[in-house]
Amino acid sequence: MESRVRVERGESGRRYAVSREYAVPPERAWSVLAGTEHWPTWGPTVSAVRPADATVHEGLTGDVQVLGGPWVPFEVTSVDVDDRGVRRWTWSVARIPATGHRVERATDGCRVVFEVPLLAGGYVPVCQRALAALATAFDATA
Q: Where do the domains of the chain lie, and which CATH numbers do they carry?
């Protein structure tokens, strides 16, 4: 299945929602999105992460190596699970609010959504590449 892009309105305003459905349980998708050891396997701009073996939680800080170059600091700014079971985490990179990451239940598995601020629309193709890479990452964690 191909990725889908739409504009949605959320708590933080309007943003692009870049999504794709997968035939994997939402719990497995969440573990790959929330486990820092997996980020380099699906994040096209992430070469390495410190700490390399953490699970996202509000306030988690560390560094990501961007495209094999500089290390930049990150902080996980929120981690939520709503009453429908939708899991979501957001972060800032170099103190700049960055993408949101969401896992929703879908008919035959789950939907992963990357939330991109409208002003960062140029990052949508990067998120589409990440969604394609997630399919391989999910297979590797099966």
A: 4-140 (3.30.530.20)
